[in-house]
Amino acid sequence: MNPMITQPKRQLFQNALRWVVPVATILAFAAWMYISPEGALGKLDAVGYAVCHRIDARSFHIGERQLPLCARCTGEFYAAGFALIFQIFVSGKRNKLPSRGIIAVLVLFFLAFGIDGSNSYLYLLKQTSPGRLDQIPNLYIPNNILRLFTGSGMGIALAAVLYPIVNQTLWREQDDRPSLDWKPFGILLALIAVINTLVLLDSPIILYPIAYLSALGTLSLLVIVFAILWIIIMREDNTFTSARQLILPFAAGLTLSLLMILSIDLFRLQFTGTWSGFPGLG
Q1: Is the pLDDT reported for residue 157 higher than 80?
Q2: How many structural domains compose the chain?
Q3: What is the DSSP pairing of strand 65-66 with strand 94-96?
Q4: Residue among 276, 246, 278, 261 at smallest CA distance from 61
Q5: Nearest CA-CA partner of 136 in 150, 151, 124
Q6: How far is CA 98 from CA 176, 192, 216, in A?
Q7: pTM score, whole prediction
Q8: Diameter over CA atoms, the chain
Q9: Which domain holds residue 100?
Q10: Is there a contact between 223 and 250 (Cβ–Cβ < 8 Å)?
Q11: Distance in angstroms (rounded) separating the CA atoms of residues 92 and 97
Q12: Where are the alpha helices (DSSP H) in 92-203?
């Protein structure tokens, strides 16, 4: 194929995307605002509804009002969002995975998440199907404290691995240093531990921001994944030199994320008839 012909076509296609993607983003956002429940927390519920079981007994509450995600997902996604923001300020464009020692800690977080989640799921099955699984012992009685801490550990692990991968994909000039060293990693762990402790106080002053951060953390992870996928498909990886150039791919990521959330929300709502947790589970 003649490159002199291909290049103008590609340029025309990219110019069209600069108009199509923002319009699609606005339409997807408008549809999400229309379909999701009323109120600010209702909009956040619609995000959590797409990724979380939202069982009331396994969630934190502001008074009688359930948070958008269960305790485990609250910990996971608020910590992931917080850790991503933390790395933006601390790590910049560093694109290497953390050291083996930090990776080992992250693996422990992953294992703790898996063990506590499996134990909690077994406990739920015993509650909903009494007598059938009594021969399988639980390691311990699950609780929201463990769900919060193991979830936040998993969120830190997700962010610590995702952040350098994003930098490897985006930037033309690479900063070949580990994205997290021991000192900032320790500070991050300490901050998350303090926030978790404050969450357990059940104060609305803490729980309202956590509700927003957890839902927006969920959305942010989806946007990042879809934006990176968009960049790879468009063959624009390692071409960016400034954050301003990322507006279009991240708008595309936001559009795809909202469409996915809407699709799951509508399917689950049709299936269960409620924005709350799955009926019969508690």
Answers
A1: yes
A2: 1
A3: unpaired
A4: 276
A5: 124
A6: 11, 18, 25
A7: 0.91
A8: 72
A9: 3-272
A10: yes
A11: 13
A12: 100-128, 144-170, 182-199
Residue 1 has pLDDT above 60, yes or no: no
Q: What is the pLDDT of residue 13?
A: 67
Of 257, 210, 280, residue with least CA distance to 50: 257
Residue 280 inside a domain? The answer is: no
pLDDT in tens, 256-275: 999 999 999 999 999 888 88
d(CA 226, CA 230): 6
Per-residue CA distances from 241 to 89, 166, 246 (Å): 17, 14, 9
Taking the C-alpha atoms of residue 256 and residue 101, their distance in angstroms, rounded to an integer, is 36
Q: Where are the beta strands (DSSP E) in the chain?
A: 61-62, 65-66, 94-96, 175-178
Three-class SS state of 139: coil
Q: Is residue 277 part of a domain?
A: no
| Residue 252: both structure tokens together | 């595309």
Q: CA torsion, points 10, 11, 13, 18, in degrees to nearest 10?
A: 140
For 36-112, strand residue ranges (E) read 61-62, 65-66, 94-96
Residue 279 lies in a domain: no
Task: Kindly report, residue by residue over 188-242, the tens digit of the pLDDT.
Answer: 999 999 999 999 999 999 999 999 999 999 999 999 999 999 999 998 999 999 9
Residue with the two structure tokens 């795809």: 256
- 3-state class (DSSP) for residue 148: helix
Q: Is residue 278 part of a domain?
A: no
Q: Does position 2 have pLDDT exceeding 80, yes or no?
A: no
Give me the long-range contacts of 61-70 (CB less than 8 A, separation at least 24). 61/202, 61/207, 62/204, 62/207, 62/208, 62/211, 63/204, 65/41, 66/276, 67/207, 67/210, 67/211, 67/214, 68/41, 68/44, 68/211, 68/214, 68/215, 69/214, 69/215, 69/218, 70/147
